[in-house]
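User: tokens in, sequence out, please.
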């Protein structure tokens, strides 16, 4: 099996770009859909280049902490961040659940205005990954669409609420 060095998912939402952007840029809305099936707690969300997003996901006795450092933010067009697993002090560390998970992943989300709808393209790419990290990423890629797809379904619900 060849190693996949990126994950890409595309989705068109039945809503104008400003509404879709809000589901990604408003921490209250973001916490509802990011990590479907878990409790998502956003500790910090400073959406600007150089800003930080500190995220906690809880399910049962499990906790996953992440820090996202925003690289590029263009309203209604693009958000990119470096995504890290972190410890309780928000310092970068290996993932406690998957030690070979890439320490840094560049996530890029682009929003394409299509009038009454919006196409979202999401791409995840390991940064400076070791061969073991690339192999781990490649092994997980096949299942990532299910999680993102579940989150996108919740975005559909949020957009319906916003239109009502």
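Assistant: Sequence out:
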């Amino acid at each position: 099996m060849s190693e996949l060095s990126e994950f890409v998912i595309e989705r068109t939402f039945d809503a104008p770009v400003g509404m879709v952007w809000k589901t990604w840029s408003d921490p209250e809305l973001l916490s509802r859909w990011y990590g479907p099936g878990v409790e998502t707690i956003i500790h910090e969300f400073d959406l600007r280049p150089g800003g930080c997003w500190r995220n906690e996901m809880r399910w049962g006795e499990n906790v996953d902490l992440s820090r996202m450092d925003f690289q590029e933010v263009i309203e209604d067009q693009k958000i990119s961040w470096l995504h890290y697993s972190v410890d309780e002090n928000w310092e970068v560390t290996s993932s406690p659940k998957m030690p070979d998970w890439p320490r840094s992943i560049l996530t890029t989300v682009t929003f394409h205005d299509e009038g009454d709808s919006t196409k979202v393209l999401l791409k995840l790419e390991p940064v400076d990954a070791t061969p073991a990290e690339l192999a781990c990423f490649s092994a997980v890629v096949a299942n990532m669409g299910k999680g993102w797809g579940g989150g996108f379904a919740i975005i559909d619900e949020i957009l319906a609420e916003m239109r009502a």
